[in-house]
Specification:
The chain has helices at 15-21, 177-187, 331-339, 397-402, 530-534, and strands spanning 2-3, 31-45, 48-55, 64-67, 71-78, 86-89, 115-121, 127-133, 143-149, 163-172, 196-199, 216-219, 224-231, 237-242, 247-252, 255-262, 264-267, 272-278, 285-293, 305-311, 359-371, 379-385, 388-390, 435-437, 441-443, 448-455, 464-468, 473-480, 499-500, 502-505, 509-516, 521-527, 538-543. The protein has 563 residues and is mostly beta strands.
């Protein structure tokens, strides 16, 4: 699977030896190579067996380990019947969108029987990220963790853990996910919701036939553990908690935070959260559990996935205790949890928030209904930004930009909605048609951008986790209701706002983001609810080249998949 120059990656039991090595070995960048074989494998869950697409036959897929400063070469060979592309979620890919992975945005997909090597240099990032398929709904089973350790000689800015573990949250369908999506599209409606949530691919004993499909983490009394939690679910924001144990948040989206302690966390699809857990309770077996958060009138898979935190020496016959998770619609918890997130903002890990803004953008998020001649009832649900439903091109947008290919996209995406309205008033159920187009927004190199994302009550308000490729951004403000450009900026946090790559726009509310457009290329921005992405809730930024070749898009690799 991987060739590395260190024994650190072989087993989590050896990790503490590696942490000791942080302080004794001089920093040295390394080349890490991985082979990803995309292949179909039969997997059984919930009394059902079905073929699923995997990497190297693993579900979830293999963890990619590296250190800050390393270069990754991941050769992806596609043996499955579907076209494939892999996105390295949260890696900035400076000047190198060719390795970013979203199909038809930065590359054409890898066809069956073909390969492509993602060449990734990790610069100025350390922490937990993840990788996943970025075509169709294949990320339902094609996903895994990315663990970037600090440079050798550098520790964590918090208590060094005794050991660490990855907790990857997901969703499971008993039926073939691609077939489920096709059936939904024929009706012009959402496809059937998932049958279970999972922890490291396992639903846990609250589901049928799942006693043997339960993730267990053994801990020792008095030790501290680092949990790297990833929400790889397709459509659900999730609460996560461990019975009897507090979680101390120390990192989000591979950016260190000011530590704070909570009984539970909220994590949206695409986000990562690192927490410290102290094994300081009476030795026993304690459930860890994940269940959705949904505070809008939208149907959802409200089942609880469980794993077990098991103290060493405790027999499996001891019944675990369930944690108290916030209620499904606990908006107050969601808002207060997110309000506690703050960047570390130290000399070593500064929060370089843009204070002057060159470009102000205001994007409304809406659901809609368009005519559909192939749908059974003649209409289909859709989604839009500034009333534009994004149409995917037939060739990669980055290729079209780099080679100046005409007719693939336009750069006239509007900076604000065409018609202002009371965005979060009573539900709007008339005039729900949207405009279709492959329309992008052009950003000048190194310009500073403020983007306000505003939820609307077109059909219904709903929380939307938005992910920006190629960048982190600072979440300088958020609120419920309509954004007020006169009053709300006065309340911005410009000192230590959270820095992320994926942010939940609150139900019936808004978020204000700031970033510096210093990474040239074409960068996708989309809702990380797969349903809404497939409905067109997406766009992309064309960031222009700088004045010299060192600040321009790199030439495409020779093995870039053909269109």
């Amino acid at each position: 699977m991987a060739k590395t120059n260190s024994f650190c990656w072989g087993s989590s039991a050896l990790l503490f030896l590696c942490l000791v090595g942080f302080f004794s070995t001089p920093a040295k960048a390394a080349l890490k190579t991985y082979q990803f074989d995309v292949q179909v494998k039969n997997v059984s869950r919930l009394c059902h067996s079905k073929p699923i697409v995997t990497v190297n036959g693993m579900f979830p897929g293999p963890t990619v380990y590296a250190r800050e400063g390393d270069t990754l070469l991941v050769n992806v060979t596609n043996h499955a019947q579907y076209n494939m592309s892999i996105h390295w979620h949260g890696l900035k890919q400076y000047r190198n969108g060719w390795a970013d992975g979203p199909a038809y945005i930065t590359q054409c997909p890898i066809k069956t029987g073909h390969s492509y090597t993602y060449n990734i240099t990790i610069t100025g990032q350390r922490g937990t990220l993840w990788w996943h398929a970025h075509i169709f709904w294949l990320r339902a089973t094609v996903y895994g963790a990315i663990v970037i350790l600090p440079k050798q000689g550098t520790g964590f800015p918090f208590l060094q853990p005794y050991k660490e573990a990855n907790i990857v949250l997901g969703e499971w369908w008993n039926n073939d996910v691609e077939e489920v999506v096709k059936q939904g599209n024929k009706l012009g409606l959402p496809p059937n919701m998932s049958d279970a949530h999972t922890i490291n691919g396992k639903p846990g004993p609250l589901f049928p036939c799942s006693e043997k499909h339960t993730y267990a983490l053994e801990v020792e009394q008095g030790k501290t553990y680092l949990l790297r939690i990833i929400n790889a679910a397709l459509n659900d924001e999730l609460f996560f908690a461990i019975a009897g144990h507090n979680l101390t948040v120390v990192e989000i989206d591979a950016v260190y935070t000011k530590p704070f302690t909570s009984q539970a966390i909220l994590i949206a699809p695409g986000q990562t959260t690192n927490v410290l857990v102290q094994a300081n309770q009476v030795p026993g077996r304690y459930f860890m559990a994940a269940r959705p958060f949904m505070d809008a009138p939208v149907s959802i898979d409200n089942k609880t996935a469980t794993g077990i935190l098991q103290y060493k020496g405790i027999p499996n016959t001891v019944q675990p205790v369930l944690p108290q998770l916030p209620a499904l619609n606990n908006t107050a918890f969601a808002l207060s949890f997110n309000a506690k997130l703050r960047s570390l903002n130290t000399a070593q890990f500064p929060a370089s928030v843009p204070l002057k803004v060159d470009r102000h953008l205001f994007y409304t998020i809406g659901l809609g209904i368009n005519q559909c001649t192939t749908c059974l009832n003649g209409t289909q649900l859709t989604a839009s930004l500034n009333n534009i439903t994004f149409v995917m091109p037939q060739i990669g947008l980055l290729q079209a930009h780099y080679f100046n290919t005409k007719g693939v996209f336009t750069t006239d995406f509007p900076d604000r909605p065409p018609t202002p309205f009371n965005y979060t008033g009573s539900p709007l159920t008339a005039n729900l048609g949207t405009k279709l187009g492959t329309r992008l927004s052009k950003l000048a190199f190194n310009s500073t951008v403020e983007l306000v994302l505003q939820d609307t009550n077109l059909l219904t308000v709903e929380s939307h986790p938005f992910h920006l490729h190629g960048y982190n951004f600072f979440v300088v403000g958020t609120g419920v209701g309509n954004f007020d450009p006169k009053k709300d900026p006065a309340k911005y946090n410009l000192v230590d706002p959270p820095e992320r790559n994926t942010i939940g726009v609150p139900t019936g509310g808004w978020v204000a983001l700031r970033f510096r457009a210093d990474n040239p290329g074409v960068w996708f921005m989309h809702c990380h609810l797969e349903l809404h992405t497939s409905w067109g809730l997406k766009t992309a930024f064309v960031v222009e080249n700088g004045k010299d070749s060192d600040h321009s898009v790199l030439p495409p690799p020779t093995d870039l998949p053909p269109c």
